[in-house]
Structures are given as C-alpha cells and as structure tokens.
Amino acid sequence: MDIKKMAKIFKALSNPNRLELYLKIADARESDFQTSGECFVTDIIDSLNIGAPTISHHIKELANADLIITEKRGKFLTCRVNEQLVAEIIKLLTLRQSTK
Amino acid sequence: MDIKKMAKIFKALSNPNRLELYLKIADARESDFQTSGECFVTDIIDSLNIGAPTISHHIKELANADLIITEKRGKFLTCRVNEQLVAEIIKLLTLRQSTK
DNA sequence: ATATCAATTTGAAAATTATCGAAATGTAAT
DNA sequence: ATTACATTTCGATAATTTTCAAATTGATAT
C-alpha cells in the first residue's frame, strides 16, 4: 500500500469523534442493531453528541478512506467495516514488529 | 486504551511525511544504521525532503503519542519504535475483526 | 577558544479541518 | 398531496496543522 493511502486511513481515525464513530460501527457487529455486520447510522447518532451534518461528513471521510462500506436503504444509511482493508493495515503494522 | 489516546496515535501517523518518518524508524531495525533497533535521525533526514525543524517537530509528535522512544546521544538523537504500544494498537484493531 | 554541526525553538504564513445552522433532497407514511 | 424524517449540501467560522527561515542551544572536534 502506498504511503499516501496509508496516511489517509490513519487521518480518518485521527479525530476522536470520528474514531468513536468508527468503533461503534465496528462493534455493531455484536450489538442489537446488527444485520450481518451492518449498522444503521440512525441508531448510533444519539450516542455521539455531534450534529447530523458532522456525522455525515465523518462517515464520508471514513468511507473515502475505504475503512467502511456504506449502503443506502431507503432513507437510511447502513455502514459496515471493510475488514479486508483493516486486515491489511494490521499486517503492515505487524510486519514491523519484532514480536511478529 | 481511551479514545483520545488512540486518536492521538492515529493522528501522529496521519501526515504522509510523518508516517514515512515513522516507517523509516521502524524499518531501521533491519538496515545499515541499526544499533539494536535504534536509528539516528541524521541518517534518515536526507532521505526525506523536509527541513530539519519539521523533522524535529514530527519526531516530537511521534514521541508524544508514545509511538517512538527517543534518546539523546551527545549531539545526536536516536529513535526506536515503542513496540509495546504498537502491539496494543494491533490488538485493538484485531479485536474488531471477524477474522481474528 | 573557536568552529562545526545536530537538533531545537521561535515566529509566522498558508493550508486544512471540525463543526454548526440553515436550507435542500429524497424517501416513506398518512 | 402533505407531512415527517434521515441524510446531505452549503456557507461560514474557529481552531489546528504543516512548514519554513532565522536564530539559538549544546556538544564535539580542531
């Protein structure tokens, strides 16, 4: 993976609110809202105290970094983690560890 | 690990130049400059085309996020990756993967 | 003691980012 | 058709970030 792409991924996770959003999406797999790994934005918006426009912007940035995959379901939006990408990141970080 | 700390770590890796710097430090373990995982800043500064003040600032930010550990050796500065922290990050990301 | 050189600090400019309120869009329900 | 509601777009502002040139510090070598 090229450095710019990698930096973009980390940037997407570098804002506390956006990171929290990402973690909620990631954890939704095991929560009440789940539908095979997906999560509805509506269901998590209340638990973060930031406005809807900001959420929308953050989601776009996560999706733009390929960290999540979104899908429109009627008027709702669902998100799920792009596990392949995250696996790649984990591998890249692990490669540099002496305790591999 | 708390979210703010986690975000700070990702932020430290979110700038392409700073990420490249980090990766060079991480890879120095297996390079010519190595002294048991350490690397001298002098030896990598030429390979990045950014000025010394910027490098200094970036190193401080990486160290501030605990991603690297620095040590002064006379007038030189050496860096090495904080492998414990990186291992923790890897674990946190892996926990959310279905392919653990 | 002086010169050299690695690194840091300072001050500043340009660019980017996070966030919001208001308005707009599009879907679904009545 | 009208309403309600999730999400998005727009425009704007405040805060943060990246970067550099110039000056400073501190250590080593001559």
From TrEMBL, chains A, B:
Annotated signal peptide: none
Keywords: DNA-binding, Transcription, Transcription regulation
PROSITE patterns per the UniProt record, alphabetical: HTH_ARSR_2
Xref: Gene3D superfamilies: Winged helix-like DNA-binding domain superfamily/Winged helix DNA-binding domain (1.10.10.10)
Keyword Membrane part of the UniProt annotation: no
Domain HTH arsR-type positions: 1-100
Pfam families: HTH_5
GO MF entry, a single one: DNA binding
Family matches, as InterPro entries: ArsR-like_HTH, HTH_ArsR_DNA-bd_dom, HTH_MetalResp_TranReg, WH-like_DNA-bd_sf, WH_DNA-bd_sf
Highest taxon above the source species: Bacteria
SMART domains cross-referenced by the UniProt entry: HTH_ARSR
Protein name, as recorded: Regulatory protein
Organism name: Desulfocucumis palustris
